Amino acid sequence: MGSACSERVEMKTVESKKKASTAWRRVIQKVKSKDGIDFKGVKKNRKALKQYLAYAATHGQHTDSWKESHEDKRLSFLINVHNAMVLNTLLRHKMPDSPDDVKVGMYQWPGAGLTWGTKYKVDSEWTSIGHLALHDTVNRYQEPLLWIALHDGTRDSAPLRWWPPSKLQSILKNETRLFVNSERGMQKTETGWSVNPLFFKHKDDFIVWTQATNLCEWMVEYASGPRKEWLSENVEACPLEQRPANRSVDRRTTKKTEKPTDGQPVAD
């Protein structure tokens, strides 16, 4: 269902099942990899994706009255639902070359159609993908590491994964270390090091909420080897470069060899 302003994606024709999250988690484990997402696998398991989004439409922290102390459970739900919304939207738009190519109603500029023009019902309320990420997740909890978990469908995101409802904070930190110490996160250049555009886009969140002086001071905690050495030596001036954006769909380009697991991912 759509309007001139935005498009509402209805999941009412799919039965909402409590086991939907388990089925979708298993799909994520099969299609994810550090090289990208197996979208053929996602499409093949579209039913599980729709059932998960249908379940999320009528469940969540408010509808099910989750206690405020269950922060990991709340964040896990928001992140996983957000990422499922992104994948489903890309499939609905016939897999564009870039998520930025999705156009909806008045949302015609790059990235707007997917982020702000597409709405799903989550926890009994309609919300856009962008609102769920920015307002309900990152800004509410003031945790910049959440930007590592929220997948925007492009090669500029950290690798997709399923986020469990327990020990989420420690997993977030481990994933951030893996991302910072990967080629996707931080690359050597002729003059120094360049970092993923994600870090510059959300620089204020990484700095202000952690009281770091600059990105170098924030990143040094998660870096290792030559990256950590360079960041430590340049922490005051912080001449980090922003690598060119890669807004193409995060589509897997090589055959996956790693074994699906709920544990820690394999580093680059």
Report on this model:
41% of the residues lie in helices and 7% in strands. The protein is mainly alpha-helical and 268 residues long. It has a three-stranded mixed sheet. Strands 4-5-6 form a three-stranded mixed sheet. Helix 1 (20-31) packs across helix 3 (46-57). The model is unreliable at 258-268 (pLDDT under 50).
In short, what is this structure?
Helix content is 41%, strand content 7%.
Number of domains: 2
Q: List segments where confidence is low: pLDDT < 50 over at least 5 consecutive residues.
A: 258-268
Whole-number average pLDDT? Answer: 91
| Helical residue percent band | 40-55%
Indicate the structural class.
mainly alpha
Please trace the helix and strand order, writing H or E for each element: EHHHHHEEHHHEEHHHHE
Strand fraction: 5-15%
**Biggest beta-sheet profile:** 3 strands, mixed
Radius of gyration: 18 Å
Side by side, the strands of the main sheet go 1-2-3
Shape: globular
Count of individual beta strands: 6
**Number of helical stretches of at least 4 residues:** 12
Report the end-to-end length measured between terminal Cα atoms: 42 Å
